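Table S2 (continued). Query chain:
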Amino acid sequence: MSARRVVACASWGMGWGIGAWLLGHRALGDATLFGSLAGPAIGVIVGRLFLDRFAGAGGLGRAGYSLAALLVAALLFGLMVGLGLFLLSGGRREFLALVAEGMAGVLFGTALFSVALWPLTWMTMRSLTAAAPANPHAPR
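Corresponding output:
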């Protein structure tokens, strides 16, 4: 992945993290901050996994890859929210239960707002592939 694409994915990840914090901090509390701070890393991971596939796909394929990217990003965000819940509890609650709670809460919120989030994910991926095309000389 080119440096330009990494920076673009991290920037979009930060934007998505801020948006997720604005939507989710009332429901999930301060633990959402952990997910938001991980936003750039989540953006790079999702970009690495899905951008090249998205760029090479057709209409329905792009829709499918954007939905998969949204769900993977939501799971990673929920994982970080669960970690935040555990750390904010001072280690007094079970780690796996809190991670599951964070992931379930984020996936529920993603499902509620999927009518808006899925097209937004598609537009994000479309702009990323246009702004930071893949390095044609990179091994696949």
